[in-house]
Predict the structure.
Amino acid sequence: MSGLITRRGLLAGLGYGVIAGTTSALAYSPSFRDFALRGGEALSYRTHRLIGRNALAPEFSEAEMSPVFRTNGNTMPSSADYQRHMNGGFADWGLVVDGLVTTPRTFSLNELRSMPSRTQITRHDCVEGWSAIGKWKGVSMKTLLDAVTLMPAARYIVLHCADSFGRNPYYESIDLLDAFHPQTILAYDMNNAPLSVGHGAPIRLRVERQLGYKQAKYVMRMEAVETLSTQFGGNGGYWEDRGYHWYAGI
Ligand SMILES: Nc1nc2c(c(=O)[nH]1)N[C@H]1C(S)=C(S)[C@@H](COP(=O)(O)O)O[C@H]1N2
Ligand SMILES: [Mo]
């Protein structure tokens, strides 16, 4: 127990305060934001990986939850497929888990909801300079990956989303340390209610040691891959393909 507290204190001292402070106060300027993210990436990636796979992001109490949690980015995927699922209450929607796995599977929303769940109250930090504390309930990514069995070559999990900016789909990716981290969940509830469309229905990623743009909404498919270089722009995410850093540690 004291070991955990020490590691968490170290994480807070080394990475969290520095980067969270820069992103909230000064990140409005695009050039400073770039600088902050690039400087922060190396520091936090090293810190997280040195401290270990299980260091936890801070969790908060019910009383600390933000009265308003704004939406950002896309808030209504326009594809016909998504609209059809949305209008049907996601009743015949399914999360595809495939790629470098031995038994690819599709999980219905009811299946996801009947699996063991995790609930966490965490702070979301957007590089545009706002934060909010919210409560998330969902299934651990580990539970899903254990159900399909990763092949030895798998190194990253790519999250394919239903929405796009123009012709470019939103997507994200994380490495296996974050994929198996205890706070990495596919959330279907937010603040005690089913996830709204604005916040990413039917499920969205929560990967709590990283910034807002990693928290992929409208996740339709999880693909295990060996390399990110062959996906879309090759940098591991929609924003990463436009210059943001792949490891957005806080
Ligand atoms: N699919 C998808 N996921 C996304 C985005 C998006 O536009 N599309 N925006 C990202 C950004 S920049 C932020 S800050 C958060 C916003 O989540 P919220 O709308 O629940 O506040 O979602 C992230 N995940
Ligand atoms: Mo963001």
Observations:
- Residues 133 and 226 are 34 Å apart (CA to CA).
